[in-house]
Specification:
Largest sheet: 2 strands, antiparallel
Radius of gyration: 18 Å
Oligomer: single chain
Number of helices: 10
Number of domains: 1
């Protein structure tokens, strides 16, 4: 039986279908609830990679690195959209971007030092915290004014580091930070979406470099980035996100958020090793 990158050819098309379905679900939920796709993409990929025979020691590393690569085209498209709408605070973005880049590179390096189990537990705890936010409806109120260049650089560094460790674009971290600094919601969302691009660039680059020479590589990969999954998820998520946004106007958003929160609790508890 011919093999492609360590995988039987007759299983390859089924694998691609699984990635397309993952992208469709992630895109739909992102448009419907305004959540980053990484919250779903990372745990689904970890499960799929296990079924497809990836090395157990690096399942989460491939899931996180691949999720960051998915964010590259989607965040660029979002950046261009928000630029046309005039909803980006470019001064804040420029001051936070250097910290974002350095933090994301550090996060990718730190992830390499973590075991697969520890990286999964870290992600699981984050999912549980996000579930609490959805259930309780916790949103930061305006507090302090925007910090200066140093403060924004440090905030960017922390957000970049956590985003790279989690395989997310950082919107769930950047938006609350900017709202707490009295930025209006429209500019906060647009600026956060813009900063997702440097997170993806630095994070993806870091996971590619840190994964070079790792054992048990599946083929069709660059370091810890698995390109068939990137292609399938991007192709399906881009058309599904606008559909989710349209459905959001016709479906009970609060009820959907609570259902999604329950899903996060189940997956997060599993990944954190609590069940």
């Amino acid at each position: 039986m011919m093999r492609i990158g360590g995988m039987a050819r007759d299983n390859f098309h089924m694998e691609l279908l699984a990635y397309l379905l993952t992208g469709a679900v992630a895109g739909l939920m992102a448009g419907l609830l305004g959540v980053g796709g990484g919250l779903l993409i990372v745990p689904i990929l970890a499960w799929l990679f296990a079924r497809h025979g990836f090395a157990n020691e690096t399942l989460m590393h491939y899931a996180v690195g691949t999720s960051l690569a998915v964010i590259l085209p989607t965040s660029l498209a979002s950046l261009l959209t928000h630029q046309r709408l005039g909803s980006i605070n470019w001064q804040v973005a420029r001051l936070m971007a250097p910290g974002i880049l350095l933090g994301a590179l550090l996060g990718a390096w730190l992830a390499k030092q973590m075991s697969n189990a520890l990286l999964g537990q870290f992600f699981g705890v984050f999912m549980l915290l996000m579930a609490v936010k959805f259930i309780a409806g916790v949103n930061p109120g305006p507090g302090r004014a925007l910090p200066g260049a140093l403060g924004l650089g440090i905030a960017g560094g922390v957000i970049g580091l956590l985003s790279a460790l989690l395989g997310i674009g950082g919107g769930s971290l950047t938006v609350p930070f900017l709202l707490s600094c009295k930025e209006n919601i429209r500019m906060a969302v647009g600026t956060a979406a813009t900063l997702g691009f440097p997170v993806a660039v630095a994070g993806t680059s870091g996971f590619i470099v840190s994964g070079l020479g790792s054992t048990g590589q599946p083929g069709f990969n660059s370091g810890f980035v698995y390109w068939p999954a990137v292609a399938g998820i991007v192709l399906a998520s881009i058309p599904m996100a606008p559909l989710g946004a349209r459905l959001a106007h016709h479906l009970p958003r609060v009820a959907l958020q609570r259902v999604f929160a329950v899903l996060l609790v189940i997956i997060g508890a599993k990944m954190a090793g609590l069940v």
